């Protein structure tokens, strides 16, 4: 039976899909509670790190809780158990449960929150509503004796180098002659002190996300046969591709706003607030823009993208009203913040289970942590569905 993966290994798998370097500057993502060497066999995914969710993780025997929303987004002066956040931290530690957060880095990622929301509506030909700037990439150049070149390439790939789209282990290489003279104090793997050596070496080049540079460097030094390997990182940038805020795509078959809103209400997790709709219910909908969580900052982007409707959460009164008056403005579907982000959880859980080779069991919390618990006196003023 395979030994359990360590928390640091789980974090590595998560961060390959949701690189922390892509999070917004104001965000707080990554490991919040946990010992990197602790074994992890079961992981619970949830939107919010509330006391109830932590209790659920403990009851499920989870070793790690992965949430979308940060626990400590703003600075705190105390984590005493007299505060809600303090109680969460104390319970996590006492139960031996780690906490890891993937927030805005999971929002923009391929296969992240917004792709999951678009997938819920079966949107085709999806693209980012607001593409992210090209992610910073380094090109690692390293020289290694030919017999050890393949082993080094594999070690670098395992550390995150050479990932291009859906391909891993990508590299370019050419063979030449390396020359060096070991001096006093050196302990050369090849040759002798004071003797000039010529060795058949391979020049190996692999792309490295900037956030993985330290891990790749450590793997290089560990796997390279030389005492002082020759290597360098060259800075470059990748073009914008499949990452960014929100998503826009088309429905396989046109439908009315009324019918689409009914589908949204059926497929999103139910909350007390339900969903709100603004627009002509008989309007034909072909192109749909979505943004999980608070998305009124992208109203203009949805209009510019030619969307017939924009599905998001937390639309503010004046912003939504002004946006609806603009020429070519999309209809609006406003759902609960929690509900628009929940569809990512089963997607992320399946991804981690697969990435771990089945060595980690993943479960998804269905606990509704939306803060609104009751709705009274709703009025249908713009038509009924």
Automatic annotation (TrEMBL):
A Pfam cross-reference name: DUF34_NIF3
InterPro entries associated with the record: DUF34/NIF3 (IPR002678), DUF34/NIF3_bac (IPR017221), DUF34/NIF3_sf (IPR036069), N-reg_PII/ATP_PRibTrfase_C (IPR015867)
Any one Gene Ontology cellular component term annotated for this protein: cytoplasm
Residues reported to bind a divalent metal cation: 68-69, 107, 337, 341
Transmembrane segments: none
UniProt keywords, alphabetically: Metal-binding
Gene Ontology MF annotations: metal ion binding
Domain of life: Bacteria
Subunit structure of this chain's protein: Homohexamer.
PANTHER family in UniProt: GTP CYCLOHYDROLASE 1 TYPE 2 HOMOLOG, NGG1 INTERACTING FACTOR 3
Protein family membership: Belongs to the GTP cyclohydrolase I type 2/NIF3 family.
The protein's name in its UniProt record: GTP cyclohydrolase 1 type 2 homolog
Biological source species: Ruania alkalisoli
């Amino acid at each position: 039976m395979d030994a359990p993966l360590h928390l640091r290994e789980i974090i590595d798998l998560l961060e390959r899909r949701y690189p922390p370097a892509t999070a917004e500057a104001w965000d707080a993502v990554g490991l919040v509670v946990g010992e990197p060497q602790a074994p992890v066999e079961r992981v619970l995914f949830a939107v919010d790190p509330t006391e109830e969710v932590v209790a659920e993780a403990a009851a499920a025997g989870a070793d790690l809780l992965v949430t979308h929303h940060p626990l400590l987004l703003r600075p705190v002066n105390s984590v005493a158990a007299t505060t809600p956040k303090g109680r969460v931290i104390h319970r996590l530690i006492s139960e031996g449960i780690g906490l890891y957060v993937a927030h805005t880095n999971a929002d923009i990622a391929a296969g992240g929150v917004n792709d999951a929301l678009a997938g819920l509506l079966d949107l085709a030909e999806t693209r980012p509503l607001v593409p992210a700037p090209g992610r910073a990439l380094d090109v690692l150049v390293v020289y290694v004796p030919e017999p050890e070149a393949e082993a080094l390439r594999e070690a670098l790939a395992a550390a995150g180098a050479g990932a291009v789209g859906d391909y891993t282990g990508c590299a370019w290489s050419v063979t030449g002659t390396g020359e060096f003279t070991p001096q006093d104090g050196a302990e050369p793997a090849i040759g002798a002190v004071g003797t000039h050596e010529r060795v058949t070496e391979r020049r190996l080049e692999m792309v490295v996300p900037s956030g993985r540079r330290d891990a790749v460097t450590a793997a290089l030094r560990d796997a390279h046969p030389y005492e002082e390997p020759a290597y360098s990182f060259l800075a470059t940038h990748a073009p914008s591709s499949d990452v960014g805020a929100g998503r826009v795509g088309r429905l396989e078959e046109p439908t009315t706003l009324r019918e689409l809103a009914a589908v949204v209400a059926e497929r999103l997790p139910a909350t007390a607030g339900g969903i709100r709709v603004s627009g002509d219910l008989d309007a034909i909908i072909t192109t749909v823009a979505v943004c999980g969580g608070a998305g009124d900052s992208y109203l203009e982007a949805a209009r510019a993208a030619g969307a017939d409707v924009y599905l998001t959460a937390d639309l503010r009164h004046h912003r939504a009203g002004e946006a609806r008056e603009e020429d070519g403005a999309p209809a609006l579907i406003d759902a609960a913040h929690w509900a628009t982000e929940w569809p990512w959880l089963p997607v992320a859980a399946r991804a981690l289970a697969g990435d771990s080779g089945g060595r980690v069991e993943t479960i998804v919390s269905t606990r509704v942590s939306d803060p609104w618990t009751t709705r009274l006196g709703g009025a249908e003023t713009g038509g009924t569905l």
